[in-house]
Design brief:
Pathway: Cofactor biosynthesis; adenosylcobalamin biosynthesis. One of its GO terms (biological process) is cobalamin biosynthetic process. This protein has about 400 residues and is α/β, with parallel strands linked by helices. It has eleven helices and 19 strands. The strands form four sheets. Strands 13-12-11-14-15-19-16 form a seven-stranded mixed β-sheet, sandwiched between helices. Strands 3-2-4-1-5 form a five-stranded parallel β-sheet. The radius of gyration is 26 Å and the shape is globular.
C-alpha cells in the first residue's frame, strides 16, 4: 500500500524551511499530530486537524488513524533520538514516509566546524546526566541534547566534578531560527544560568592535569571504584571480562555484584550493553549506585536481593558472572538454567570450598578451569619483593545450543 503516515521533520525556521514533499504532505493531511512548539510553526493554510501528543506519551493517536492521511511533526531528523524510530517499529515500511530536516546536531557541528562523524552525541532528554561520564576523555568532542534550560549549568557542574573543568562549552539556543544564540565558556566557571529550554551543549573535552584517564577497555584501576574490599581486582577483572566477552546489545547478570565493577565495565564496552547487578548487602548496593553514575552507566539495573531467590523472573541473560555465593545452594544451577543457549557463564572462587564447588560442577557440565596468580612488587626493608595476592580459580563454560 502507499504510505498513509508521513513524519515531517521541521526546524526552527518553520514551514518556510520545508521541502516541497513535506509541504504537500501537510496540506493533504486530515490530521497532524505533534508537540505544541511544532504545531505552532504551521501557517493557517494547513487545514488538517491539529492534535497534541497525549500525556503520558503514546503512539495510539497515530496508530488509531491507520489508513487515513496523517502527518506527524518532529524536530529536525525524526530518526535521530526522535519519534520516527518509535513509529518505524510499529508501522510497516511501505506505509510510512519519513522526511527529515537537518538535526540540531548537524547544525551545531556546522557552526563549530566539527566533522560530524567524529562527534559523540548524547541525549539527556528524560535521561540521567550521569551517562555523559562514560564518554569523557581529553580530545573527545561531545554534543549533548539538553532536557531544558537548566541542563547546561548541570552539565558544567558534572564536568567539573569529574575533573573536566577546563573543557570548552558552547551552548546553542534555537538553532536554525530567528532567535538563534550562542554562549561560550569553560565548564569550571560557567556563568550562563538563564538559557532557553530549546538548546544543546557542545563540549570540547579537556581533563585537568591531575585527572586520571579511564579507558573503555576492561581493567580500570581499583581506585576508580568506591568499595569495602569486596571488589574483583583490576587484573582478575580484565581476565574475567575477556572471558565474558561482551557483545553489543547483550545482557549480563552480575551475581553477588559487590561494588558493581564487572557489570559497570561490561556496560562501558558498548552503549547498548546491559547489565543487572544482583546484590543483597545494603551498603554495597549504595556503592553500586555511586559507581555506576560516576563511571557513566546509570542504566545498570540494581536487583536488591540474594541469589538464587532474586534471580527468578529476570530477563534471560546472554552472560552471567558469579563473583560471590557459588557455594550457596541453587546459585550455580539456577544461573545455568536461566542462561540462554550459547551464553557464557564465568564464576570466580577464592576459598577452598568455593573452588571445590566449581570443580564438582565442572565435572557435570564441562568448561575450563583457570588458576590466576597475581603478584605485585612491594617494599621489604630497603629492597622490594613480590607480594602474592590470593589465587583465584576461574570457571568458564558456554551453554550448549
Amino acid at each position: 500500500m502507499s504510505p498513509w503516515l508521513t513524519v515531517v521533520g521541521i526546524g526552527e525556521d518553520g514551514f518556510k524551511g520545508l521541502g516541497r514533499n513535506a509541504r504537500h504532505a501537510l496540506l493533504r493531511a486530515t490530521r497532524i499530530i505533534g508537540g505544541q512548539r511544532q504545531l505552532d510553526l504551521l501557517p493557517v493554510c494547513i487545514r488538517g486537524e491539529r492534535q497534541l501528543w497525549p500525556s503520558p506519551f503514546s503512539l495510539e493517536p497515530v496508530l488509531a488513524k491507520r489508513g487515513e492521511p496523517v502527518c506527524v511533526l518532529a524536530s529536525g531528523d525524526p530518526m535521530f533520538f526522535g519519534v520516527g524510530a518509535s513509529l518505524a517499529r510499529q508501522v510497516a515500511a511501505d506505509e510510512l514516509l519519513i522526511l527529515p530536516a537537518p538535526s540540531s546536531v548537524s547544525l551545531a557541528a556546522a557552526r563549530l566546524g566539527w566533522p560530524l562523524q567524529d562527534v559523540v552525541t548524547v541525549s539527556v532528554v528524560a535521561r540521567p546526566f550521569a551517562g555523559i561520564n562514560a564518554h569523557l576523555a581529553s580530545g573527545v568532542r561531545l554534543i549533548v541534547l539538553s532536557n531544558d534550560g537548566g541542563s547546561p549549568a548541570l552539565i558544567a557542574a558534572l564536568l567539573t566534578e569529574a575533573g573536566f573543568g577546563p573543557s570548552q562549552l558552547t551552548v546553542f539556543e534555537h538553532l536554525g531560527g530567528a532567535n538563534e544564540r550562542r554562549l561560550d565558556g569553560l565548564a569550571a566557571d560557567w556563568q550562563h544560568l538563564g538559557t532557553a529550554d530549546l538548546n544543546l551543549v557542545a563540549i570540547d573535552c579537556l581533563a585537568s592535569s591531575d585527572t586520571p584517564p579511564l579507558s573503555r577497555l576492561a581493567g580500570l584501576p581499583d581506585s576508580a571504584f568506591q568499595h569495602d574490599g569486596q571488589l574483583t581486582k583490576r587484573d582478575v577483572r580484565a581476565m574475567t571480562l575477556a572471558r565474558l566477552a561482551p557483545m553489543p546489545g547483550e545482557l549480563l547478570w552480575d551475581v553477588g555484584a559487590g561494588s558493581g565493577s564487572i557489570g559497570i565495565e561490561w556496560m562501558r564496552t558498548h552503549p547498548s550493553c546491559r547489565a543487572l547487578a544482583i546484590e543483597a548487602d545494603e551498603g554495597r548496593q549504595g556503592l553500586i549506585e555511586h559507581n555506576r553514575d560516576a563511571l557513566g552507566v546509570p542504566g545498570l539495573h540494581l536487583i536488591r536481593g540474594k541469589a538464587p531467590d532474586a534471580l527468578h523472573g529476570l530477563p534471560t541473560p546472554d552472560a552471567i558472572f558469579i563473583g560471590g555465593g557459588v557455594t550457596r545452594d541453587g546459585v550455580l544451577d539456577t544461573c545455568w538454567q536461566q542462561l540462554r543457549p550459547g551464553g557464557r557463564l564465568v564464576a570466580n572462587a577464592v576459598t577452598l570450598q568455593s573452588e571445590m564447588t566449581l570443580m564438582n560442577w565442572r565435572a557435570q557440565h564441562g568448561g575450563e578451569l583457570t588458576r590466576i596468580h597475581v603478584a605485585q612488587a612491594q617494599p621489604l626493608g630497603e629492597f622490594d619483593t613480590w607480594r602474592q595476592a590470593l589465587p583465584i580459580t576461574l570457571l568458564e563454560v558456554t551453554k550448549p545450543l
